[in-house]
Design a protein that fits this description.
It is built from eleven helices and 19 strands. With 323 residues, the protein is of the alpha+beta class. It folds into three domains: 54 residues, Alpha-Beta Complex (Molybdopterin biosynthesis moea protein, domain 2); 104 residues, Alpha-Beta Complex (Aldehyde Oxidoreductase, domain 3), CATH 3.90.1170; 147 residues, 3-Layer(aba) Sandwich (Molybdenum Cofactor Biosythetic Enzyme, Chain A), CATH 3.40.980. The strands form six sheets. Strands 15-14-16-19-18-17 form a six-stranded mixed β-sheet, with helices on both faces. The chain has a four-stranded antiparallel β-sheet with strand order 6-7-11-9. Strands 10-8-13 form a three-stranded antiparallel β-sheet, with no helix packed on it. A hairpin with a 7-residue loop joins strand 6 and strand 7. It is elongated and about 90 Å long. The mean pLDDT is 92.
Length: 323
């Protein structure tokens, strides 16, 4: 940076904040670093006692923070994200639709490991509403080496590092298991919970079945719902290791490919996910009925984007899995 007279600074970029203090009224930055000085600014700067000002001296080896922020935005901004105007060297990204936030965590870690780079996001695989702010990015100094930003771009590669994946519309079938419900001895309180959670994603249960505790009946209902064109099947109850809890066996006998039975998440350890012809079949443990947040709240939004989950996806949930 270099020091020049204020009158000669028109069109130059201010290198530092210029503070205005009016006793009992205000104390703060009148002009922010990065501000491009105009002719109208000169009298105000002189009133603030700034006969001389420090401006950014153009250097072909450096980038101003605003330009560097634009580079970070370009490598991060993917589908269904909108960017703010650059302000004080920072750009923020927000969702343009409801959906699931996805970020390449490994590349963000590698980029943030480069000195003087800052990219902050919300947690990965989190459901977001339209207009939700999901990321902010900037470089730390006022100017940064161009070579450093070229290195960051090389790490990022061609694909954007962040996106919002919108939810798909699923035809949902529900099977409630339990002889006490099947015979009408007690009222089912599980179905309303599932209905409420699905409604928050714009979905409803199209087909409902109540099964006793027999493996055969539950398996037959799974087959029936598949034949009716359901694109997601949720089974509630009968998911523990008790001998008379046979829902996992019924799901297996349907011919579905089991992804996991048991996950490192509490509440919800006895959760099951399987796929048959890419149609997700879930077995929900009883905790989903009475706990505000369980494995179902983690798995459901990812499944609703059309993602095919793997055993490894669930294994990774252990750290942070105590809900």
């Amino acid at each position: 940076m270099k020091e020049i007279k204020v009158q000669d600074a028109i069109g130059q970029i201010l290198c530092h904040d210029v503070t205005e203090i009016v006793r009992g009224v205000t104390k703060g930055a009148k002009f922010r670093k990065g501000h491009v000085i105009t002719a109208e600014d000169v009298p105000a700067l002189l009133k603030l006692g700034k006969e001389n000002i420090f401006v950014w001296e153009n250097d072909e080896t450096k980038l101003h923070e605003n330009d560097a922020a634009e580079i970070l935005k370009n490598i991060c901004q993917g589908e269904n994200l909108t960017a703010s105007e650059v302000k004080e060297g920072k750009i923020e990204l927000s969702a343009t639709c409801d959906g699931l936030f996805h970020v390449d965590e490994d590349k963000i870690f590698e980029i943030n490991s480069v000195d003087e780079i800052c990219i902050a996001t919300i947690q990965n695989n989190i459901p977001v509403k339209k207009s939700k702010k999901i990321s902010g990015m900037r470089v730390i100094p006022l100017v940064i080496d161009k070579e450093k930003m070229l290195h960051v771009q090389k790490i990022a590669g061609a694909a954007p590092l962040m996106k919002i994946v919108p939810y798909k519309n699923f035809k949902v079938g529900l099977i409630v298991t339990g002889s006490e419900i099947f015979h009408g001895r007690i009222k089912d309180t599980f179905m309303p919970v599932i209905e409420s959670k699905l409604k928050s994603y714009g979905l409803e249960i199209l087909e409902r079945r109540i099964s006793d505790d027999s493996k055969e009946m539950t398996k037959n209902f799974i087959d029936e719902l598949l034949n009716l064109g359901m694109e997601m099947i949720i089974c509630t109850g009968g998911m523990s290791v008790d001998p008379d809890d046979r829902t996992p066996a019924a799901i297996r006998d349907s011919g579905a490919e089991i992804v996991t039975y048991g996950v490192p998440v509490l509440p919800g350890a006895m959760f099951m996910l399987a796929y048959k012809n890419k149609i997700p079949i879930m077995g929900l443990p009883g905790c989903v009925m009475y706990c505000a947040k369980t494995i179902f709240d983690i798995a459901l939004p990812r499944i609703l984007t059309g993602e095919i989950l793997t055993r490894q996806d669930f294994t990774k949930l252990g750290v942070g899995g105590l809900l």
